[in-house]
Amino acid sequence: MSRRARAQVAPVVRPIVLGGDAGAYSLARAFHEAYGVRATVVTIVPTRNVRYSKILDNLVVPELDDPDVMVRTIRDLAAGSDVPAMVVTCVDWYVRALAEHRARIEDVAIVPYTRLDLLDRVMDKQRFSELCVELGVPHPRTVVRHGGDQVGELGLRFPIIAKPGDNAAWHHVKFRGKRKVHELSKVEDLQWLLTAAGEAGYRGAFIVQEFVPGSDAQMRIMTTFSDQRGYVRTAVGGHVLVEEHTPGTLGNPAAILTGPLPQIEADARKLVEHLGWTGFANFDIKLDPRDGKGYFFELNPRTGRSNYYMTASGVNPAKLWVTEHVLHGNIPVPIRQQVLYRIIPGFLLRRYVKAANDPEVRKRLKQVRRVAHPLRYGRDRSLRRDAWVWLSELNQVRKFRRFYPASEARATAYRGAGAPTTTGAPRG
Predict the structure, then answer these.
(1) Which end of the chain has a smaller Cβ tally under 10 Å, C or N?
(2) Pairing between strand 142-146 and 205-210?
(3) In this structure, are residues 100 and 29 in contact, taking their beta carbons and an 8 Å threshold?
């Protein structure tokens, strides 16, 4: 479609995006690519991901974490729209808040997320573990401890992973050394985490799991979209080549090579269709080199921070939402293409692919015709934005050098198994 033709198309939706990370920008971009509309991205503080953007409006609301403020903000934004408003996010806390307060919002804005009872069932990681066992979906051996507990008898082999079972409560907790996911090498590290979290006010569950061996290159991602009847209409998977390792973004994919994942897709479909899930579900999976199975860690009740890997491969989330909730049409069958998604410089990615020592991946990368960066958008360019995106890539080099040097990735890959590279206790 030409630029003139796009300008003549009447808008069909008024997107409101909560959150200001790269995932939020990616959703705003998806709406702009599909319909040429400007989203309003609502953030607690100004963020560089949306600063200087020409395709969106940034509204800063410092008290957005207050549900009453969130509801009032959405209603105010939707009130001035002559087309249906839709509110979306990549943040678990906002997803739950939107579902909990749906009755206060849905008369003015579409909330395309599943029922609150289903959200609570899967956001409780202990219950998700039980669901995987029930359905025979591969899942790491798991026990539960709570903030303030003593470790006691675990019955697990170290190294282990510990992550909060209540993301909404964890969102509000602050203490030195807090991470999204804690990678622990010994029982003393786990005891430190439980004590520190309890003293900071988090008494919720921690999901403690055995570490599935292998480096970042063993990670996989899968995102499904289910219609209002609970049937999966599309699923998009990919091979995570390297993850981020800074404390606040640990585990987020930094590079994804899209492609089919038959066993993982089948298990993901089994999970969401058993639940009667609607909308998007995003899964983190790790391929165990010992048995070749993809082990599911969790179900995220929304598109992930790296959601642009879907849009770039031909599955635009904005089109799926609008088709179902605004146009009430049949969900289209997207024409997919293989894509390399990355937020790090190409030379840095090649360094980690080399460290992973996987000739098959290197071969597939040579065949990729499209490389997609979520923040690089040809219709959203300016000197200031281009300079910031360039600097953000250079900053990734510094972050990887500090938190995950290539030598660590190489050592883990050559072991084929092994321990996490960090402990839970703060350094220094």
Answers:
(1) C
(2) antiparallel
(3) no
Match 């100004």 to its residue by tokens: 46
Half-sphere exposure of 165 (CA within 13 A, CB side): 22
Q: What are phi and psi for residue 236, nearest 5 degrees?
A: -130, 120
- Residue 36 zone, left/alpha/beta (φ > 0; ψ -120 to 50; rest): left
Domain at 216-415, CATH from 3.30.470.20, 2.30.30.30, 3.40.50.2000, 3.40.50.300: 3.30.470.20
* CB crowding 292-320: b at 16 or more within 10 Å, else e: ebbbbbbbbbbbbbbbbbbbbbbbbbbbb
Beta strand pairing status for 56-60 and 39-43? parallel
Full-model pTM: 0.86
Residue 288: closest CA among 353, 364, 183, 215? 215
Tokens representing 247 are: 């404390």
Pick from 230, 169, 215, 161: nearest CA to 193? 161
The number of helices, as runs of H, and strands, as runs of E, in the chain is 15, 16
Helix (H) or strand (E) holding 427: none
> How many C-beta atoms lie closer than 10 Å to residue 14's C-beta?
22
For the stretch 80-114, pLDDT in tens is: 789 999 999 999 999 999 999 999 999 999 999 99
What distance in Å separates the CA atoms of residue 146 and residue 204, rounded to the nearest whole number? Answer: 5
pLDDT number for residue 407 = 84
**pLDDT score, position 333:** 74
Domain 3-120 annotated CATH 3.40.50.20: yes
Q: What is the mean pLDDT of residues 402-417?
A: 75
